Amino acid sequence: MHPKLSIGSWAFAFGPFASSPWPFSRILQYAREAGFDGVEINGFAPHPTPESHPTRGSRLELLDEIEACGLGISGYAPDFTKVSPALVSKESYLERLKSYIDFSGDLGISTIRVDTVSPPGRLDEREYEERFQRLAGTWRDSGALAEEAGMRIVWEFEPGFWLNKPSEVRRLVEMVDHPAFKVLFDTSHAYMSGTVGARHAGAKELLPGGIAEYARLLKGHIGHFHLIDSDGTLHDDETSTHAAFGAGLIDFPEILAELKPAIETMEWWCVDFCFSAEVEEWGRQAIAFIRERIREAG
Questions:
Q1: What pLDDT, on the 0 to 100 scale, is given for residue 298?
Q2: Which terminus of the chain faces fewer neighbouring Cβ atoms within 10 Å, N or C?
Q3: Phi and psi (nearest 5°) for 278?
């Protein structure tokens, strides 16, 4: 396995950085100095959006800036907060998605990250199924739009959003049933979802085999990969705490070996330090740690 490694720019915009986000140009300099091969772009202002770079010319200038730092782009994580896909009309969601597809196309990005937007919570059976069916249909058509543009949609499941149980994740991606719609497998979220059962509505659904079993459950459906450690806790009781590599509970050689069939041909893996105040220090340590774990995984 010889992936290029990127760092998610959202780590410098959310949580402890929210009051004073790093400019995107500063992140590019950091990524280069820390030894990353690229960045995964946070699609929330002040980082690049279709509004901040409204023309193809302005986007090509941005691409030139990124490439001048010797970096590539592993994906785009845009803002869908105003169009929750299980609640709004399919048309309004797809309209927003089209703007992100156009933006990503101009930058040569092939992977667009999505989530369910809605927080987790208990719903009665009728409302649950209505939302589930609406979501699956919207994301099926999203996959079709992405496929036409030579891209794919990847869904990041996590404790902070609706549908965070292993069986729900598998059922949803199977119901969408589109080759351009896949799951984004984040090691920290997978640990909190499958091992801890964080924010599961009703009874917790735990996997005895932990992350490795989660990987087997989603065989054939994994389309993007985020790496980060987990200490088994939530950040602000909302979503997974992103711990320093080696300071948490994840057995990376084991999970990399289990995931190898799905991830060994991926061009990019992304390091995700969202909500981590220590991202500067931890990011500089990440690449050597990951390369060594890849060697151990065989």
A1: 79
A2: C
A3: -95, 20
Specify the pTM. 0.96
Residue 160 has pLDDT above 90, yes or no: yes
Q: Using CA atoms, how far apart are residues 155 and 139, in angstroms rounded to an integer?
A: 9
Which residues touch 31 (CB under 8 Å, ≥6 apart)?
6, 7, 38, 39, 69, 71
The three-state (H, E, C) secondary structure of 222-277, written as one string:
EEEEEECECCCCEECCCEECCECCCCCCCCHHHHHHHHHHHHCCCCEEEECCCCCC
CA distance 25 to 67: 12
What is the rounded average pLDDT of the residues 228-255? 95
List, in order, residues 6 or more apart from 38 with CB less than 8 Å away: 4, 5, 6, 31, 66, 71, 72, 73, 74, 268
Banded pLDDT at 80 (limits 50, 70, 90): very high
Total Cβ atoms within 10 A of residue 237: 10
E-strand ranges in 23-144 read 38-43, 72-78, 111-114
At 117, list the tokens: 């937007």
Neighbours of 167 (CB within 10 A): 11
Q: Would you say how long the chain is, in residues? A: 298
CA-based nearest residue to 74, from 270, 290, 287, 283: 270
CA 237, CA 241: separation in Å to the nearest integer? Answer: 9
With respect to CATH, is domain 4-297 assigned 3.90.1570.10?
no
Tell me the two tokens of residue 164: 């965070």
Amino acid at 259: L
> Is residue 20 exposed (0-12), middle (13-18) or buried (19+ Cβ within 10 Å)?
exposed
Question: Phi first, then psi: what are they for 285, rounded to 5°?
Answer: -90, -15
The dihedrals phi and psi of 3, each to the nearest 5 degrees, come to -75, 155
| Six token digits for residue 212 | 């490795």
